[in-house]
Amino acid sequence: MDFLDEIEATVPTLRRYARALTRNADRADDLVQDCLERAIRKRSLFAPTGPLQAWLFRILINLWRNDLRFERRRGEHVPIDSLVSEPSVAPAQPGRIALAEMSRAIDRLPDDQREALLLVVLEGLSYQDAADILGIPAGTLMSRLGRARAALRALTGSGEEPRLRSVK
């Protein structure tokens, strides 16, 4: 399989991870597009010592972190929808409420913990692969996962281990 075919095969995985990071479909698509553009432009820097997917994930995460740093300097963007109150509606089913609560809890995690959690839980990567993508030792990754899981338990008020399923 040639370089561009491998990149094309990785696009759905990149989009899924970017959507989980950004919580915004348009922003995720922009992030993936920037990632693919950079990968193609910097193709000569890819050393096939590991999988292409891991290299693409590193590019995507670095672009995401750069965006976060830029946003912090620029200030917070508040969507107009959050300023307008919603009309009252009947509560959703309990499963949907729990899912929304978990989603909000994941959003509140520090970036490093959320990145690690999503790579392992959402993408189903091994600890070592996720650590390689994030450029950290496996022990550090496991510590971040432990802190993320503990924070999720505290944020959701659950004494149980959170059960997140992959959506592959």
TrEMBL record:
One of its GO terms (biological process) is DNA-templated transcription initiation. GO terms for molecular function: DNA binding; sigma factor activity. It holds the Pfam family Sigma70_r4_2. Residues 7-60 form the PhyR sigma2 domain. Residues 101-152 form the RNA polymerase sigma factor 70 region 4 type domain. It comes from the Bacteria. Keywords: Sigma factor, Transcription, Transcription regulation. Belongs to the sigma-70 factor family. ECF subfamily. NCBIfam families: sigma70-ECF (TIGR02937). This is RNA polymerase subunit sigma.
